[in-house]
């Protein structure tokens, strides 16, 4: 399986969202797009140009945008809000909590520029807490796809789901390695490579890093299972437990704080069901900084060698 | 953009069923009784603002709004109401029950465990008539604007009404929503502001003065109407004016002067009654001032 995972081009996941939204606009007249002065960055201009009556420019006023989106659902609309991940979550948390999550409104909160890989803009924009914030909210579904194709597929899929969704994607051009026509099943983890020595659970951009890490591990003689957890809530606990039982040790990898993200989710499931040696590759309770995406992933310990090291460490622990 | 409906041809049945001012005032009095009894029985809640806005909600639900008590969340082809200052929940619940959205007896469950009548209104328990949770202030204007835009997109020429407290205007999200509604010419929305000049910590002017509220709304590009919110005739007249002002490219706001605690002499104009329930003795005195008109729950 590992050999068959390859890419011929790199594309940004936000463009996958833009392409998906445009397609949705053509499919479903109830879909409405909203942005807070970031239509270009979120690649929403295709939708805005083709469906001007269903596109609402909100200006730099995210709190209002979330409330307007909630209101649009009263009347059967399916609003897709688009702004950076930081302004889609922390800045508007109480608006989301009361008007969207508690009110169980069918709003799709679509967030770009997550994590360190937004790069040079620095820590003000590099939100590393959004998965935790959003998965704590009852009624909320939380998704972070791994590449352009999967982000497009996820964008189409969430329109079919009744209820609030947080869809997280990013800025940098990233390997496109999943099927362009893939079905996207919310809450169903994606097995990318079967292995027996260690399981690598990854989310978002770091899924590709996990694939690379599995290749390095294979060269060292270890068979790593690679599983893409594109939906962190609801978590595919069945797949997580099955794989952990099979390999006996796990590594998680995410562009997020150590606290509150994928590592926490998996640790919770394992601790409650079958305690398993585990290593978490995540940002270690610090803010980010300016730099290129690759430089930042290296400096903050989220790169391929970090996943490899974590795997070697956890496999050693399993065997003692 | 909202299009004004053709004036309905005079229908003797409709005219006959139109409640008189006296009838509406009677309903408002019963609603005030409900508010006192609900907060007393709960031992907590927010009677002050609830009493002050009883006339407006009575006018809306018993005369002005074309609404369907067979509740549907989407509210298509009916006028809908969005409550922003959710702490006036006893008022909202009494109005909804008295209008026929659910059994009046359920008012006795206000703020109790397993009740649909939460301390602040919520959709989670499925209470008919509630379309959005409110309580954390300043969010309802945006929601009302969004609901009005959904009506526009649906070609639904009904209106959205909303209610907001004056202390609540200190929340910045309102001003974002005001800019947005004017920019997008949301002219099928009638927002009403409960200008009682009081909030939980004291007079609004002392806590954080709103200054010239009317000038601010004018400056934001809204059609501004003003009314004595505790005079039924004036409330009805102003709501008629508001309806007529819809469909002209501007959102409409009614700045409604009210008295906190209206109808109960010892509560009137006293901010201490923002969020304190009357005890049994106070309740007896209050109810003496509010004759039962429709039968207590």
General description of the model:
The complex is a heterodimer of chains A (320) and B (297). By secondary structure, chain A is of the alpha/beta class. Chain A folds into two domains: 7-175, Thiamin diphosphate (ThDP)-binding fold, Pyr/PP domains (Rossmann fold), CATH 3.40.50.970; 190-318, Rossmann fold (3-Layer(aba) Sandwich), CATH 3.40.50.920. Chain A has twelve helices and 14 strands. Chain A has helices spanning 13-27, 45-50, 62-73, 85-88, 93-102, 130-135, 148-160, 206-219, 237-247, 262-273, 293-299, 304-318; strands spanning 10-12, 31-35, 55-57, 78-84, 108-112, 141-143, 165-168, 173-175, 190-193, 198-202, 224-228, 231-233, 250-257, 278-283. In chain A, the strands form three sheets. A seven-stranded mixed β-sheet of chain A has the order 3-2-4-5-7-6-12, with helices on both faces. A five-stranded mixed β-sheet of chain A has the order 9-11-10-13-14, sandwiched between helices. Chain A has a two-stranded antiparallel ribbon with strand order 1-8. Chain B has 297 residues and is an alpha/beta fold. Chain B has one domain (12-288): Rossmann fold. Helix content of chain B is 39%, strand content 11%. Chain B is built from eleven helices and seven strands. Chain B has helices spanning 12-17, 21-42, 47-52, 54-64, 89-99, 140-154, 173-183, 204-208, 213-219, 232-245, 280-288, and strands at residues 80-83, 160-165, 189-195, 198-199, 202-203, 223-228, 252-257. Chain B has a five-stranded parallel β-sheet, with helices on both faces. Chain B has a two-stranded antiparallel ribbon with strand order 4-5. In chain B, helix 4 packs across helix 10 and helix 6 (140-154) runs parallel beside helix 7. The longest helix of chain B is centred in the first third of the chain and has 22 residues, at 21-42. Chain B starts with 11 loop residues before the first helix and ends in a 9-residue tail after the last helix. The chains are: A alpha/beta (320), B alpha/beta (297). At the A-B interface, helix 3 and helix 5 of A face helix 6 and helix 7 of B.
């Amino acid at each position: 399986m590992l050999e068959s995972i390859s890419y011929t081009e790199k594309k940004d996941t936000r463009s996958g969202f833009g392409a998906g939204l445009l397609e949705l606009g053509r499919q479903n007249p109830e879909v409405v797009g909203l942005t807070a002065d970031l239509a270009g960055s979120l690649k929403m201009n295709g939708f805005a140009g083709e469906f001007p009556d269903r596109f609402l420019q909100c200006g730099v006023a995210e709190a209002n945008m979330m409330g307007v989106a909630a209101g649009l659902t009263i009347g059967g609309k399916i609003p897709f809000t688009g702004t950076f991940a930081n302004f889609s979550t922390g800045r508007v948390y109480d608006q989301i909590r009361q008007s969207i999550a508690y009110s169980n409104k069918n709003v799709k909160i679509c967030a770009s520029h997550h994590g360190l890989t937004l790069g040079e803009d620095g820590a003000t924009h590099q939100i590393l807490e959004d998965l935790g914030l959003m998965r704590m909210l009852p009624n909320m579904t939380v998704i972070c796809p791994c590449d352009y194709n999967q982000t497009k597929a996820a964008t189409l899929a969430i329109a079919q789901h009744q209820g609030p969704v947080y869809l997280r994607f990013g800025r940098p051009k990233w390997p496109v390695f999943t099927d362009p026509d893939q079905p996207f099943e919310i809450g169903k983890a994606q097995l990318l490579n079967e292995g027996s020595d260690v399981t690598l659970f990854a989310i978002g951009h770091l899924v590709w890093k996990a694939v690379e890490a599995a290749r390095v591990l294979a060269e060292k003689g270890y068979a790593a299972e690679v599983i893409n957890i594109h939906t962190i809530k609801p978590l595919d606990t069945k797949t997580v437990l099955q794989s952990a039982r099979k390999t006996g040790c796990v590594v998680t990898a995410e562009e997020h704080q150590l606290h509150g993200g994928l590592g926490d989710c998996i640790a919770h499931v394992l601790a409650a069901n079958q305690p398993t040696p585990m290593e978490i590759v995540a940002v270690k309770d610090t803010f980010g900084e300016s730099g290129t995406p690759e430089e930042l992933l290296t400096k903050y310990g989220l790169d391929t060698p970090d996943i490899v090291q974590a795997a070697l460490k956890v496999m050693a622990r399993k065997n003692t | 953009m909202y299009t004004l409906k053709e004036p309905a041809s005079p229908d003797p049945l409709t005219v006959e069923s139109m409640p008189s001012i006296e009838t509406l005032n009677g309903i408002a009095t019963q609603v005030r009784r409900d508010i006192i009894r609900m907060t007393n029985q709960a031992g907590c809640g927010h009677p002050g603002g609830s009493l002050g806005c009883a006339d407006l909600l009575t006018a809306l639900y018993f005369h002005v709004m074309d609404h369907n008590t067979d509740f549907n969340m989407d509210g298509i082809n009916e006028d809908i109401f969005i409550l922003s200052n959710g702490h006036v929940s006893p008022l909202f619940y009494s109005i909804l029950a008295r209008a026929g959205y659910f059994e009046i007896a359920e008012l006795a469950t206000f703020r109790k465990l397993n009740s649909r009548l939460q301390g602040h209104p919520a959709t989670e328990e499925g209470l008919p008539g509630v379309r959005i949770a409110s309580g954390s202030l300043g969010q309802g204007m945006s929601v009302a604007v969004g609901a009005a835009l959904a009506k526009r997109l649906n070609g639904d020429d009904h209106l959205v009404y909303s209610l907001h407290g004056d202390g609540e205007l200190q929340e910045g999200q309102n001003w974002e929503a005001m800019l947005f509604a004017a920019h997008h010419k949301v002219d099928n929305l009638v927002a009403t502001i409960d200008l009682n000049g009081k909030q939980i910590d004291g007079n609004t002017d002392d806590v954080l003065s709103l200054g010239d509220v009317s000038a601010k709304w004018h400056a934001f590009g809204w059609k501004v109407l003003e009314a004595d919110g505790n005079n039924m005739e004036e409330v009805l007249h102003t709501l008629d004016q508001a309806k007529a002002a819809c469909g002209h490219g501007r959102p409409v706001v009614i700045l409604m002067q009210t008295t906190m605690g209206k109808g109960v002499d010892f509560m009137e104009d006293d901010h201490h009654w923002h969020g304190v329930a009357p005890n049994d003795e106070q309740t007896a005195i209050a109810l003496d001032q509010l004759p039962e008109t429709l039968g207590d729950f």
